[in-house]
Amino acid sequence: MFQKMHRSIPLGYGESASSYVSRLARRYGALSAFDFCRDMGTSFRDVYDGTDTVLDSLARGAGVDLGELRLHSIRRNARNSFVIQGVELPLAALERTNIRACPLCIQEDAGIGRDAWAPVAYGRGWWQISSLKTCESHRCALVDIGHESRPERAHDFTLVLRPILGRLPEIVSDASKREASHLERYLQARLNTRDSSNALLDTLPFHVVAKTSEAIGAVEVFGRDVSFRNLSSEDWWQAGCAGFAILAAGSSGLDAWLASQRDNYPRRHTLTQKAQAYFGSFIKWLQTAPSSFDPIRDIVAEHCFSMMPLEPGSIVCGRVLSKRRVYSVYTASKAIGRFAKPLRKMLLEAGVVDDRPDLRDHELLFRADESTEAFLAKAANYLSLKATQDYLGITRTHVVSFLAHGLIQPFQRPTPDISSFSFERGQIEELRLAILSKAKFYERSKPQSSWTDVMQASRRANCSLAEVMQLILDGRLLNVRRLSRESGLLAVEVDPVEVKNLVRRAALPGLTKSCMERRLGISNNAGTKFFATGVLPTVDARHPVKRQLIKVVPYDALESFEREYILLAALARQLRISPRTLKLGIQRTGIIPKYTFEENGSDVYVRADIEKLRGIEIDFRRDRPSERVDKYGDRAILF
Predict the structure, then answer these.
(1) Which helix (H) or strand (E) holds 244?
(2) Mean pLDDT across the stretch 238-247?
(3) How far apart are CA 92 and CA 212, in angstroms?
């Protein structure tokens, strides 16, 4: 224990116990602090470890304030860590063998001293905190003044300082002049117990804030694969500046930085990417950091689990992912055993992912919620268009027909490109079994003309295969059979006559062109002109058998036409006169046709005009001589 000292010296502001004892040793002429403590009956190790009983006896023996001495001394506690100014620090956060100092502080202290036996240049306790690299008072970077592997010499500040005092002006001029960084100001505020009001940082231990900021900044400034061992003190200071700006933004700021590291990953073509690849040296360092860094590990692990397509059981920073949260198109395709390209098209059409052609399959992500899990469960059993054709034994045209009649449904939203359609295997199998269950079994015998397969029946009835299948499902076909050993849809046989009767549509609402021509007794050319010029009104209608859209003359329109008009050919047949002769005679009466042969293919007269000629004598004599005379010769008749 230290005894009462009559030649004591004042304790410097912020001075550590080891520095104070080192100066006392010089004051009493001892060769070193180690020898001085031995002469005083105590151990120098107990001084630089800050043992309570030794510090108490030192304060009493030297007559200095015990509170100030304890506050700025590095004191080892029961957990084998250290405490300074009420802040607990691990050994890794301290510089115990590298001795650092502010050269301007030393110069200022040396200028005050007048007594060579009472040196006043002293070491501040906070100089041993590795993340504090700048003297805020003098705006000067701390410099290394020595390195000692032996603790009893490393903590003897006066002994280490003595060789460099002669070079102090040179050291002062070479020292970097700079403002303290935001990280250093925050750490100093924590040492001085000033509230910084940062929701994340204030909950973290002092050294966790410091080391995490430096690790983040090192990767941000020097690249993800930087070697921490090769960084200088100046490099670490720059890293701390950059990293603290990120960490001070809270969990969201750290999340944003992690996301930027993933987005800027240079080897984007790699299919299976892990946190080690994305975050490089930072994640390597974090994985080996002590348990006090668990809050940072939690943030990083949560980010990876929420933003990366990791499978259940993945481990990040010692945390295990129990349930998948994110898929990429690539990992989803692996999970359900399907190719990535068609699956991506299905996910896009279902609205699960956005159309991002700039992203590869392993970069396009989507959430693994209940709806997407259900979708992927269906996608695992999907059939492509081609596979559906092969499964049912039908052609692409028939699949389109099945879609149009609602027999099958795509399980993603429809698009104009039918080649991208896919169908659920269960639905297709259910349709196949439902149709086959309606058919009775029979054994092959002699061919029967009254039976044919469904494909041939659809052709004979001029309908689609889907319509025949719908008739079978609805139970409207009474005669349905198949061979017992056949299980394909096209093996089902039906009665084609029964099919034709059931699919026949309603009768036409009028006469077709050919029927109209036969009824009016006109030629094909005349009928074409009647339709083209609108002599007879027409409507569009579906043929009851052939199904195509055709033009027909409504029955009421044709009857109205026949009541109002009469064709020259029909009138000539009634009178048994040549149409040409009859036309000549009618022209001499001054009656002209309503529709002419030149425009409409036949001369058509108003029936009322012809009725006016009844009982009138009409002259059919020609103006030119002719050896041939017709039935009436050159005579006239009563009309």
Answers:
(1) helix 233-247
(2) 95
(3) 13
Residue 141: strand pairing partners: 134
Distance CA 257, CA 283 (A): 13
Which two structure tokens, joined as six digits, stand for 314?
Answer: 């993945």
For tokens 């040179």, the residue is 170
Instruction: For residue 430, give both structure tokens.
Output: 């259910």
List beta partners, residue 605. Answer: 566
Q: What is the pLDDT of residues 578-597, one digit of tens each?
A: 888 888 888 888 888 888 88
Q: How many CB atoms lie within 10 A of CB 401?
A: 19
Task: Report yes or no on whether pTM surpasses 0.85.
Answer: no
Q: Backbone phi, then psi, for 326, in 5-degree steps?
A: -135, 140
Q: How far apart, in whole angstroms, are the C-alpha atoms of residue 582 and residue 580?
A: 5
The three-state secondary structure class of 51 is coil
Concatenate the DSSP letters of all residues of 73-134 into one string. Answer: S-EE-TTS-EEETTEEE-GGGB-SSEEEE-HHHHHHHHHH---TTS-----BGGGGBTT--E
Mean pLDDT of 490-519: 86
What percentage of the chain's residues is helix, strand, coil (to nearest 5)?
50, 10, 40
pLDDT at residue 271 is higher than 80: no
CA distances from 173 to 104, 108, 141, 305, 372 (A): 10, 14, 11, 51, 66
Say which amino acid occupies 236.
W
Amino acid at 352: V
Strands 617-619 and 636-638, by their bridges, are antiparallel
Our CA dihedral for 613, 615, 617, 622, rounded to 10 degrees, sits at 50
Segment 366-381 mean pLDDT: 88
Pairing state of beta strands 452-453 and 422-424? unpaired
Tell whether the torsion through CA atoms of 227, 229, 234 and 236 is positive or negative. Answer: positive
Structure tokens that stand for 463 in this block: 């309908």
Q: At what angle do helices 206-222 and 182-191 cross, to 10 degrees?
A: 170
CA dihedral (88, 91, 96, 99) in degrees, to 10, reads: -70
How many residues does the structure list for the chain? 639
The predicted pLDDT at position 628 comes to: 39
Distance CA 58, CA 572 (A): 149
